[in-house]
Amino acid sequence: MPDNIPRHIAFIMDGNGRWAKAKGLPRTVGHRRGVQRVKEIVRAAAEAKIQAVTFFAFSTENWQRSPKEVNVLMRFLDNFLDKEIKELHQKNIKFMVIGRAKPLPENILKKIKAAQDLTSANTGMAVVLALNYGARQEIVDAAKLLCRKAVKGELDIENLSEEDFSRCLYTAGLPDPDLLVRTSGEMRISNFLLWQLSYAEFYFPKICWPDFSKEELNKAIKEYQERERRFGRIDAN
Question: What is the CATH number of the domain that holds 72?
Answer without folding.
Answer: 3.40.1180.10
